[in-house]
Amino acid sequence: MNKVLFICGKNSGRSQMAEAYLNQLGGNDYEVKSAGLEPAESVNPLVIAVMKEEGIDLAHKIPRSVFELFKRGELFSHVVTVCDSETDAKCPVFPGIAHRLNWPFPDPEYVTGSDGEKLEQVRAIRDRIKASIIEFIA
């Protein structure tokens, strides 16, 4: 069993999407969680909308703190940070793991434009995350 943790700043977008896709596509080979350095109050509404298009409901997910997992003594075989250096000055780290990966994706919180343009940008981020998950599983 591979235990995988996806981390980003607020656990409200990228890490939530990555967790959902690995849970959906990885089958029973993975135990997956996501967390953030400074968790948001809720998952980004744009992320909820674009994941719903994929049949994945994130509306009731609650962002969690990476420190919560650390304090519980959880260990992971893979820790994947999904921070983008342009938007995340402090991408969190998690100690005591075997493999660390960084997949830099733009933060959906910072998309701009009309509502339609924002959705298109978040769809593009979603699709890149899904492609990375498919590659990771392979």
From TrEMBL:
GO annotation (BP), single: response to arsenic-containing substance
Keywords: Arsenical resistance, Oxidoreductase
Root EC class: oxidoreductase
InterPro entries: Ptyr_pPase, Ptyr_pPase_sf
Gene3D superfamilies xref list: 3.40.50.2300
SUPFAM superfamilies the record matches: Phosphotyrosine protein phosphatases I
Top-rank lineage group of the source organism: Bacteria
Catalytic activity, EC: 1.20.4.1
Domain Phosphotyrosine protein phosphatase I: 2-138
Family annotation (CDD domains): LMWP_ArsC
GO molecular function: arsenate reductase (glutaredoxin) activity
The name this protein goes by in its record: ArsC1
Species whose genome carries this gene: Desulforapulum autotrophicum (strain ATCC 43914 / DSM 3382 / VKM B-1955 / HRM2) (Desulfobacterium autotrophicum)
Gene: arsC1
